[in-house]
Amino acid sequence: MTGFQKWLRAHRPFCVCYECARFALHKLLFFVPQRTPVWYGFNKRPVQDAKETLPLDESWYHIRRPLYLHEHVYYNLDNALSANPNVKGFAFVFFMGIGDYLYTTPVLAALKQKYAHLPFYAYVGAQFDRNNSPLVGKLLEENPHFEKVFYFQGTRHPLIWKNYDYSAALKDVPENFLVIPVYYDHSQYVTHRVISLFDTFNLPLPHDASAPQMYFPHDVAKPVADYLAIARAQAQCTKGIVFLQLDSRSSNYTYPHVKTLAEQLIKAGYFVMSVTPGGPEQNPQYLQIDIKKLSINQTWQLLALLKQEFPLYVIAVNSVFWAASAGLKLPNLGLSHWVDKKVHNVWYPNIEVVTNHIYPFLPREKQIFAPEQSYTRHNRKIIDYKPEWIIRWFTQKFGE
Length: 400
Hints:
Layout: H1 3-10, H2 12-28, E1 40-42, E2 73-75, H3 77-83, E3 89-94, H4 98-114, E4 120-125, H5 135-142, E5 148-152, E6 177-181, H6 193-200, H7 222-234, E7 241-245, E8 247-248, E9 253-254, H8 258-267, E10 271-274, E11 286-288, H9 296-307, E12 312-317, H10 320-328, E13 332-335, E14 351-355, E15 367-369, E16 375-377, E17 383-385, H11 387-398
Protein backbone atom coordinates (compact mmCIF):
# COMPACT_ATOMS: atom_id res chain seq x y z
CA MET A 1 0.00 0.00 0.00
CA THR A 2 1.38 3.40 -0.99
CA GLY A 3 1.88 6.32 1.36
CA PHE A 4 -1.07 8.13 -0.21
CA GLN A 5 -3.32 5.12 0.33
CA LYS A 6 -2.28 4.89 3.98
CA TRP A 7 -2.99 8.58 4.47
CA LEU A 8 -6.35 8.25 2.74
CA ARG A 9 -7.46 5.36 4.94
CA ALA A 10 -6.49 7.31 8.04
CA HIS A 11 -8.75 10.23 7.08
CA ARG A 12 -12.24 8.83 6.63
CA PRO A 13 -13.99 11.93 5.16
CA PHE A 14 -11.39 12.25 2.41
CA CYS A 15 -11.48 8.48 1.84
CA VAL A 16 -15.27 8.52 1.44
CA CYS A 17 -15.08 11.41 -1.03
CA TYR A 18 -12.32 9.69 -2.98
CA GLU A 19 -14.17 6.37 -3.20
CA CYS A 20 -17.43 8.04 -4.21
CA ALA A 21 -15.60 9.94 -6.96
CA ARG A 22 -13.86 6.77 -8.10
CA PHE A 23 -17.22 4.97 -8.20
CA ALA A 24 -18.83 7.81 -10.18
CA LEU A 25 -15.99 7.78 -12.70
CA HIS A 26 -16.34 4.02 -13.00
CA LYS A 27 -20.05 4.44 -13.80
CA LEU A 28 -19.31 7.12 -16.40
CA LEU A 29 -16.76 4.88 -18.09
CA PHE A 30 -18.92 1.73 -17.97
CA PHE A 31 -18.42 1.27 -21.71
CA VAL A 32 -14.66 0.81 -21.26
CA PRO A 33 -14.02 -2.94 -21.17
CA GLN A 34 -12.36 -4.28 -18.02
CA ARG A 35 -10.07 -7.15 -18.84
CA THR A 36 -9.59 -9.64 -16.06
CA PRO A 37 -8.08 -13.12 -15.94
CA VAL A 38 -10.53 -15.89 -16.76
CA TRP A 39 -10.84 -17.00 -13.13
CA TYR A 40 -12.65 -13.97 -11.70
CA GLY A 41 -14.99 -11.23 -12.79
CA PHE A 42 -16.23 -7.94 -11.35
CA ASN A 43 -20.01 -8.00 -10.89
CA LYS A 44 -20.33 -10.79 -13.44
CA ARG A 45 -19.51 -14.47 -13.54
CA PRO A 46 -16.52 -15.48 -15.67
CA VAL A 47 -17.46 -17.24 -18.89
CA GLN A 48 -17.11 -20.99 -18.43
CA ASP A 49 -14.08 -22.49 -20.20
CA ALA A 50 -12.99 -19.10 -21.50
CA LYS A 51 -9.57 -18.97 -23.14
CA GLU A 52 -7.00 -16.81 -21.39
CA THR A 53 -5.69 -13.83 -23.36
CA LEU A 54 -3.71 -12.19 -20.56
CA PRO A 55 -0.13 -13.12 -19.69
CA LEU A 56 0.30 -15.63 -16.86
CA ASP A 57 2.55 -13.30 -14.91
CA GLU A 58 2.64 -12.59 -11.18
CA SER A 59 -0.36 -10.24 -11.33
CA TRP A 60 -2.48 -13.00 -12.89
CA TYR A 61 -2.58 -14.85 -9.56
CA HIS A 62 -4.40 -12.17 -7.57
CA ILE A 63 -7.12 -9.55 -8.04
CA ARG A 64 -5.58 -6.63 -9.86
CA ARG A 65 -7.41 -3.61 -8.48
CA PRO A 66 -9.46 -2.46 -5.47
CA LEU A 67 -13.19 -2.94 -5.71
CA TYR A 68 -15.62 -0.11 -6.28
CA LEU A 69 -18.49 0.72 -3.94
CA HIS A 70 -21.12 -2.08 -3.99
CA GLU A 71 -18.99 -4.17 -6.36
CA HIS A 72 -18.72 -7.93 -5.98
CA VAL A 73 -16.25 -10.52 -7.28
CA TYR A 74 -17.23 -13.88 -8.74
CA TYR A 75 -14.77 -16.74 -9.08
CA ASN A 76 -14.37 -19.66 -11.46
CA LEU A 77 -11.54 -21.80 -10.17
CA ASP A 78 -12.12 -24.41 -12.89
CA ASN A 79 -11.16 -21.75 -15.41
CA ALA A 80 -7.99 -20.97 -13.47
CA LEU A 81 -6.83 -24.59 -13.53
CA SER A 82 -7.75 -25.04 -17.19
CA ALA A 83 -5.99 -21.87 -18.29
CA ASN A 84 -2.91 -22.25 -16.13
CA PRO A 85 -1.50 -25.72 -15.37
CA ASN A 86 1.11 -24.07 -13.12
CA VAL A 87 -1.42 -23.27 -10.36
CA LYS A 88 -0.06 -25.15 -7.33
CA GLY A 89 -2.60 -24.30 -4.65
CA PHE A 90 -5.17 -21.87 -3.27
CA ALA A 91 -4.35 -19.09 -0.80
CA PHE A 92 -7.64 -18.04 0.82
CA VAL A 93 -7.52 -14.64 2.55
CA PHE A 94 -9.84 -13.98 5.50
CA PHE A 95 -10.61 -10.58 7.02
CA MET A 96 -13.81 -11.25 8.91
CA GLY A 97 -15.32 -12.06 12.28
CA ILE A 98 -15.95 -15.48 13.79
CA GLY A 99 -19.60 -15.56 12.79
CA ASP A 100 -18.69 -14.50 9.25
CA TYR A 101 -16.22 -17.37 9.09
CA LEU A 102 -18.81 -19.92 10.19
CA TYR A 103 -20.95 -19.09 7.17
CA THR A 104 -18.00 -19.93 4.91
CA THR A 105 -17.45 -23.45 6.28
CA PRO A 106 -19.92 -25.33 4.03
CA VAL A 107 -18.41 -23.63 0.96
CA LEU A 108 -14.83 -24.34 2.03
CA ALA A 109 -15.74 -28.01 2.55
CA ALA A 110 -17.34 -28.16 -0.91
CA LEU A 111 -14.29 -26.55 -2.49
CA LYS A 112 -11.92 -28.98 -0.79
CA GLN A 113 -14.01 -31.91 -1.95
CA LYS A 114 -13.83 -30.60 -5.51
CA TYR A 115 -10.13 -29.64 -5.45
CA ALA A 116 -8.77 -32.26 -3.06
CA HIS A 117 -5.56 -32.55 -5.08
CA LEU A 118 -4.51 -28.97 -4.25
CA PRO A 119 -3.28 -27.58 -0.92
CA PHE A 120 -5.43 -24.96 0.81
CA TYR A 121 -3.57 -22.26 2.76
CA ALA A 122 -5.35 -19.69 4.94
CA TYR A 123 -4.24 -16.10 5.58
CA VAL A 124 -5.93 -14.29 8.48
CA GLY A 125 -5.71 -10.72 9.73
CA ALA A 126 -3.73 -10.68 12.98
CA GLN A 127 -5.55 -7.79 14.67
CA PHE A 128 -9.00 -7.06 16.04
CA ASP A 129 -10.86 -4.36 14.20
CA ARG A 130 -14.39 -3.69 13.03
CA ASN A 131 -14.00 -6.21 10.19
CA ASN A 132 -11.54 -8.74 11.48
CA SER A 133 -10.95 -11.15 14.35
CA PRO A 134 -7.68 -13.10 14.52
CA LEU A 135 -9.61 -15.86 16.33
CA VAL A 136 -10.74 -16.91 12.85
CA GLY A 137 -7.20 -18.23 12.43
CA LYS A 138 -7.58 -20.45 15.49
CA LEU A 139 -10.71 -21.96 13.98
CA LEU A 140 -8.96 -22.49 10.66
CA GLU A 141 -6.17 -24.30 12.50
CA GLU A 142 -8.84 -26.84 13.54
CA ASN A 143 -10.30 -27.01 10.02
CA PRO A 144 -9.08 -30.25 8.38
CA HIS A 145 -9.36 -28.77 4.89
CA PHE A 146 -6.41 -26.40 5.41
CA GLU A 147 -2.79 -27.47 5.45
CA LYS A 148 -1.37 -24.19 6.79
CA VAL A 149 -2.59 -21.00 8.47
CA PHE A 150 -0.70 -17.71 8.34
CA TYR A 151 -1.35 -14.34 10.00
CA PHE A 152 -0.76 -10.90 8.51
CA GLN A 153 -0.95 -7.29 9.67
CA GLY A 154 -3.79 -5.74 7.72
CA THR A 155 -5.83 -2.55 7.68
CA ARG A 156 -9.56 -2.16 7.23
CA HIS A 157 -10.94 0.19 4.63
CA PRO A 158 -13.12 2.96 6.13
CA LEU A 159 -15.87 2.51 3.54
CA ILE A 160 -15.52 -0.69 1.48
CA TRP A 161 -14.91 -3.75 3.66
CA LYS A 162 -13.84 -5.83 0.64
CA ASN A 163 -10.88 -3.50 0.13
CA TYR A 164 -9.21 -4.64 3.32
CA ASP A 165 -5.46 -4.22 2.91
CA TYR A 166 -4.01 -7.75 2.90
CA SER A 167 -0.84 -6.90 0.98
CA ALA A 168 1.30 -8.03 3.94
CA ALA A 169 -0.02 -11.57 3.46
CA LEU A 170 1.45 -11.88 -0.02
CA LYS A 171 4.99 -12.40 1.27
CA ASP A 172 3.92 -15.76 2.72
CA VAL A 173 2.05 -16.96 -0.39
CA PRO A 174 4.06 -19.58 -2.28
CA GLU A 175 4.81 -19.08 -5.94
CA ASN A 176 1.97 -20.08 -8.29
CA PHE A 177 -0.69 -20.08 -5.55
CA LEU A 178 -3.92 -18.36 -6.50
CA VAL A 179 -4.70 -15.58 -3.99
CA ILE A 180 -8.45 -15.67 -3.23
CA PRO A 181 -10.01 -13.15 -0.82
CA VAL A 182 -13.11 -14.73 0.70
CA TYR A 183 -15.89 -12.36 -0.31
CA TYR A 184 -19.63 -12.68 0.08
CA ASP A 185 -22.43 -10.41 -1.03
CA HIS A 186 -24.29 -8.93 1.92
CA SER A 187 -27.36 -6.90 1.09
CA GLN A 188 -31.11 -6.80 1.60
CA TYR A 189 -31.55 -8.60 -1.72
CA VAL A 190 -29.32 -11.57 -0.95
CA THR A 191 -31.20 -14.72 0.03
CA HIS A 192 -28.61 -15.88 2.55
CA ARG A 193 -24.91 -15.35 3.08
CA VAL A 194 -24.17 -19.04 2.55
CA ILE A 195 -26.09 -19.04 -0.75
CA SER A 196 -24.11 -15.96 -1.78
CA LEU A 197 -20.84 -17.74 -1.03
CA PHE A 198 -21.78 -20.79 -3.11
CA ASP A 199 -22.73 -18.42 -5.91
CA THR A 200 -19.50 -16.43 -5.53
CA PHE A 201 -17.41 -19.56 -5.95
CA ASN A 202 -19.44 -20.93 -8.87
CA LEU A 203 -20.65 -23.96 -6.93
CA PRO A 204 -24.09 -25.58 -7.30
CA LEU A 205 -26.48 -23.66 -5.08
CA PRO A 206 -28.01 -25.61 -2.18
CA HIS A 207 -31.78 -25.47 -1.88
CA ASP A 208 -31.45 -24.13 1.67
CA ALA A 209 -28.57 -22.46 3.44
CA SER A 210 -26.23 -25.15 4.74
CA ALA A 211 -25.54 -24.97 8.46
CA PRO A 212 -21.98 -24.19 9.61
CA GLN A 213 -19.61 -27.10 9.95
CA MET A 214 -17.90 -27.43 13.32
CA TYR A 215 -14.55 -29.18 13.80
CA PHE A 216 -13.38 -30.37 17.22
CA PRO A 217 -10.23 -32.20 18.29
CA HIS A 218 -10.63 -35.88 19.15
CA ASP A 219 -9.25 -35.39 22.66
CA VAL A 220 -11.05 -33.20 25.18
CA ALA A 221 -8.71 -30.55 26.58
CA LYS A 222 -8.48 -30.15 30.35
CA PRO A 223 -10.26 -26.74 30.50
CA VAL A 224 -13.19 -28.24 28.58
CA ALA A 225 -13.24 -31.30 30.83
CA ASP A 226 -13.20 -29.08 33.94
CA TYR A 227 -16.19 -27.01 32.81
CA LEU A 228 -17.95 -30.17 31.64
CA ALA A 229 -17.62 -31.72 35.11
CA ILE A 230 -19.05 -28.61 36.79
CA ALA A 231 -21.98 -28.36 34.40
CA ARG A 232 -22.76 -32.09 34.68
CA ALA A 233 -22.86 -31.93 38.46
CA GLN A 234 -24.86 -28.72 38.75
CA ALA A 235 -27.36 -29.31 35.92
CA GLN A 236 -28.72 -32.54 37.36
CA CYS A 237 -32.41 -32.43 38.26
CA THR A 238 -33.00 -29.27 36.21
CA LYS A 239 -35.18 -28.76 33.13
CA GLY A 240 -32.03 -28.34 31.07
CA ILE A 241 -29.28 -25.86 30.31
CA VAL A 242 -29.71 -22.37 28.88
CA PHE A 243 -26.63 -20.85 27.30
CA LEU A 244 -26.45 -17.04 27.08
CA GLN A 245 -24.52 -14.91 24.61
CA LEU A 246 -25.79 -11.39 25.07
CA ASP A 247 -23.05 -9.20 23.69
CA SER A 248 -22.09 -8.31 20.13
CA ARG A 249 -18.75 -7.00 18.90
CA SER A 250 -20.14 -5.75 15.58
CA SER A 251 -22.82 -3.58 17.21
CA ASN A 252 -20.73 -2.77 20.31
CA TYR A 253 -23.55 -3.99 22.53
CA THR A 254 -23.83 -5.77 25.87
CA TYR A 255 -27.22 -6.63 27.33
CA PRO A 256 -27.52 -4.78 30.68
CA HIS A 257 -29.78 -7.25 32.52
CA VAL A 258 -27.74 -10.48 32.37
CA LYS A 259 -27.97 -11.08 36.13
CA THR A 260 -31.74 -10.62 36.34
CA LEU A 261 -32.37 -12.78 33.27
CA ALA A 262 -30.13 -15.57 34.57
CA GLU A 263 -31.77 -15.47 38.02
CA GLN A 264 -35.23 -15.73 36.48
CA LEU A 265 -34.16 -18.66 34.29
CA ILE A 266 -32.75 -20.41 37.36
CA LYS A 267 -35.98 -19.73 39.24
CA ALA A 268 -37.84 -21.32 36.31
CA GLY A 269 -35.79 -24.51 36.83
CA TYR A 270 -32.86 -24.19 34.42
CA PHE A 271 -29.10 -24.32 34.80
CA VAL A 272 -27.59 -21.24 33.15
CA MET A 273 -24.24 -20.83 31.43
CA SER A 274 -22.99 -17.57 29.91
CA VAL A 275 -20.08 -16.15 27.98
CA THR A 276 -21.38 -12.64 28.64
CA PRO A 277 -20.21 -11.41 32.06
CA GLY A 278 -22.49 -9.90 34.68
CA GLY A 279 -24.42 -12.96 35.86
CA PRO A 280 -25.01 -14.20 39.43
CA GLU A 281 -21.68 -15.98 39.81
CA GLN A 282 -22.33 -16.92 43.45
CA ASN A 283 -25.38 -18.94 42.47
CA PRO A 284 -24.49 -22.66 42.09
CA GLN A 285 -26.98 -22.95 39.21
CA TYR A 286 -25.00 -20.45 37.18
CA LEU A 287 -21.70 -20.98 35.38
CA GLN A 288 -19.71 -18.10 33.92
CA ILE A 289 -17.49 -19.21 31.02
CA ASP A 290 -14.12 -17.50 31.20
CA ILE A 291 -13.13 -16.86 27.57
CA LYS A 292 -9.53 -16.52 28.71
CA LYS A 293 -9.60 -20.18 29.76
CA LEU A 294 -11.69 -21.58 26.91
CA SER A 295 -11.18 -20.77 23.26
CA ILE A 296 -14.31 -20.15 21.21
CA ASN A 297 -14.00 -23.58 19.61
CA GLN A 298 -13.60 -25.21 23.03
CA THR A 299 -16.77 -23.44 24.15
CA TRP A 300 -18.61 -24.93 21.19
CA GLN A 301 -17.13 -28.34 21.94
CA LEU A 302 -18.33 -28.02 25.55
CA LEU A 303 -21.87 -27.33 24.30
CA ALA A 304 -21.69 -30.22 21.83
CA LEU A 305 -20.77 -32.58 24.69
CA LEU A 306 -23.46 -31.23 27.04
CA LYS A 307 -26.07 -31.55 24.29
CA GLN A 308 -25.58 -35.32 24.41
CA GLU A 309 -26.70 -35.39 28.06
CA PHE A 310 -29.09 -32.48 28.68
CA PRO A 311 -31.77 -30.46 26.93
CA LEU A 312 -29.76 -27.45 25.77
CA TYR A 313 -31.03 -24.07 24.61
CA VAL A 314 -29.47 -20.78 23.50
CA ILE A 315 -30.57 -17.22 24.09
CA ALA A 316 -28.41 -14.94 21.98
CA VAL A 317 -28.38 -11.49 20.46
CA ASN A 318 -27.69 -11.29 16.76
CA SER A 319 -24.03 -12.25 16.76
CA VAL A 320 -21.74 -15.26 16.44
CA PHE A 321 -23.99 -17.68 18.33
CA TRP A 322 -26.74 -17.39 15.77
CA ALA A 323 -24.47 -19.22 13.34
CA ALA A 324 -22.92 -21.42 16.04
CA SER A 325 -26.30 -22.56 17.35
CA ALA A 326 -27.23 -23.66 13.83
CA GLY A 327 -23.98 -25.60 13.49
CA LEU A 328 -24.62 -27.26 16.86
CA LYS A 329 -28.32 -27.80 16.04
CA LEU A 330 -29.51 -26.03 19.18
CA PRO A 331 -32.84 -24.19 19.57
CA ASN A 332 -32.12 -20.49 19.86
CA LEU A 333 -34.25 -17.61 21.08
CA GLY A 334 -32.57 -14.95 18.95
CA LEU A 335 -32.86 -11.40 20.26
CA SER A 336 -32.77 -8.97 17.37
CA HIS A 337 -31.62 -5.95 19.34
CA TRP A 338 -31.58 -3.54 16.40
CA VAL A 339 -33.36 -3.30 13.06
CA ASP A 340 -31.21 -5.03 10.45
CA LYS A 341 -32.97 -5.36 7.12
CA LYS A 342 -30.31 -7.88 6.05
CA VAL A 343 -31.00 -10.22 8.99
CA HIS A 344 -32.31 -12.95 6.67
CA ASN A 345 -28.76 -13.23 5.33
CA VAL A 346 -27.67 -14.84 8.62
CA TRP A 347 -30.81 -16.61 9.82
CA TYR A 348 -31.33 -20.37 10.22
CA PRO A 349 -34.55 -22.28 10.99
CA ASN A 350 -33.39 -23.18 14.51
CA ILE A 351 -33.69 -19.49 15.48
CA GLU A 352 -36.91 -17.97 16.82
CA VAL A 353 -36.37 -14.25 16.24
CA VAL A 354 -37.62 -11.76 18.83
CA THR A 355 -38.02 -8.44 17.07
CA ASN A 356 -39.83 -5.13 17.21
CA HIS A 357 -39.73 -4.97 13.41
CA ILE A 358 -41.35 -7.64 11.24
CA TYR A 359 -38.97 -8.73 8.47
CA PRO A 360 -40.57 -9.55 5.10
CA PHE A 361 -37.83 -12.01 4.12
CA LEU A 362 -38.06 -14.12 7.29
CA PRO A 363 -40.85 -16.67 7.81
CA ARG A 364 -43.54 -14.93 9.82
CA GLU A 365 -44.01 -17.98 12.06
CA LYS A 366 -40.35 -17.67 13.11
CA GLN A 367 -40.76 -14.08 14.32
CA ILE A 368 -41.98 -13.13 17.78
CA PHE A 369 -43.19 -9.56 17.67
CA ALA A 370 -42.07 -7.57 20.70
CA PRO A 371 -44.62 -4.95 21.79
CA GLU A 372 -43.39 -1.56 22.89
CA GLN A 373 -43.85 -2.36 26.57
CA SER A 374 -41.48 -5.35 26.29
CA TYR A 375 -38.31 -3.30 25.85
CA THR A 376 -36.58 -0.06 26.71
CA ARG A 377 -34.30 2.05 24.56
CA HIS A 378 -30.58 1.35 24.92
CA ASN A 379 -29.87 4.17 22.51
CA ARG A 380 -31.45 5.56 19.36
CA LYS A 381 -30.64 2.39 17.39
CA ILE A 382 -30.57 -0.46 19.92
CA ILE A 383 -33.19 -1.78 22.37
CA ASP A 384 -32.97 -3.82 25.59
CA TYR A 385 -35.62 -6.51 26.03
CA LYS A 386 -36.99 -6.77 29.54
CA PRO A 387 -35.97 -10.03 31.27
CA GLU A 388 -39.53 -11.00 32.22
CA TRP A 389 -40.55 -10.80 28.57
CA ILE A 390 -37.59 -12.90 27.44
CA ILE A 391 -38.61 -15.54 29.98
CA ARG A 392 -42.19 -15.42 28.68
CA TRP A 393 -41.11 -15.90 25.06
CA PHE A 394 -38.60 -18.60 25.99
CA THR A 395 -41.25 -20.54 27.93
CA GLN A 396 -43.75 -20.25 25.09
CA LYS A 397 -41.30 -21.62 22.56
CA PHE A 398 -39.16 -24.08 24.49
CA GLY A 399 -40.72 -24.59 27.91
CA GLU A 400 -42.88 -27.44 29.08
